[in-house]
């Protein structure tokens, strides 16, 4: 007999989750930029270059050790929560986290024993003992990141953001203590030690927060849907391995892999500057609506599509997220072209302002990269991993392309060009397979063109305010003027369809929603 309870993926829960997510992401984003400022400015250029390589090794290792478990959590945890009792959901979650821990420990062992080879390959033999210590961050960060995915799948973004906030606060406090309170020079050994403390605390806190959710949810009646059958082990294995092989292909064309390959051909100063820009690139990509909000909306989108099987509605939601990302990228491109060199100077404490052109190219690269991310999410929801598998072969071209650009002496721009071309090819292949399988993918060219017009119009209108003066007050005033101009042109052109507005109004407060709806009616009637 089924018992009734509130929908765990209701619009009210989604709205609350989005509020927690927005606040947490804003605070964590500010802390992330401040940490980048402290590290890039505090570490010497040679040590920062080594730290950049350590991070790249960590990101690649955690990805290669996942065997598709992220996809299993994202797809099936919402289904378990919507259809099964609390103890069945928790048994499923802890089986996933146990397997993830086992794989991460194996990965740490491989890095530990392979560190002498890595030291010889990248010519940092004196840093091999520190890399062996840093290898444990691979375990801790992989575990902490997996908790983030699990909490996101449960629509518990308040818990997820609180967890990551503690990590960032601990790390920031340690860095500030060394640089400002003790007034001593920051070293790579100190950074590694501080990161171990912060990431370890975050990973441990994940277990405590999961038990807190267990206790909280256990107080409510839990619905049992006898019509829903849990996925078989064979089905989960097929989905996990398919996505894992796609992930391997993706990692071959990922910016971290391209960085490690490029490190063989570039000098220490170039590697440090490249690592600084790639850290900014990663930070921005995480905060674009298409990538940032996908983690929030995906459980709700999956639950809705499972119930309605409405492909048109699903595709419109994907396109809405992409247009949101394009709007943000448009604003960032305007800022970077107009004030980028000064902002990079301030952020890196004068060390990496010469990477201005690379920063612009990486922002352009995010246009197809973000689309690629959302297209993959669409194919996963449609349970079409084979499409992603074949499209992922596009990433096999990334490394040869980078090598060719390096031979042509494009320098640090080689990575951005290889990323750009491989992502474009991936999108073309996946859209082709979607259409061939009867899923007509409609790219909203008219509304996307409006975003292009907004970018051009704002850049032209903001040109008189561009100044080369390296004064914070001048930069802030000019940024505010540019922001106002950008909002005016966005309001006038409104790059959203009537159905987009209807989707947005369900999430916004009633007074804002009604005004946006009225504006939409005026624009679309004209």
Descriptive account of the structure:
There is one protein chain. Helix content is 80%, strand content 0%. The protein has 526 residues and is mainly alpha-helical. It contains 21 helices and no strands. α4 runs antiparallel to α5.
List the helices and strands and how they pair.
Layout: H1 11-42, H2 45-64, H3 69-83, H4 86-121, H5 128-153, H6 157-181, H7 188-217, H8 233-252, H9 255-262, H10 268-287, H11 289-292, H12 294-308, H13 311-347, H14 356-381, H15 385-391, H16 398-407, H17 413-436, H18 445-462, H19 472-493, H20 498-505, H21 510-525
Helix pairs in contact: 1-6, 1-10, 2-5, 2-9, 2-10, 3-4, 3-5, 3-8, 3-12, 4-5, 5-6, 5-7, 6-7, 8-15, 9-10, 9-17, 10-14, 13-14, 13-18, 13-19, 14-17, 15-17, 16-17, 18-19, 20-21
Total helical segments: 21
Strand fraction equals under 5%
Give me the oligomer status: single chain
Please tell me how large the radius of gyration is: 23 Å
**Helical/strand content category:** mainly alpha
Percent of residues in helices comes to over 70%
- Please tell me what the overall shape is: globular
The biggest beta sheet is recorded as:
none
The count of β-strands is 0
**Distance separating the two termini:** 54 Å
Mean pLDDT over all positions: 81
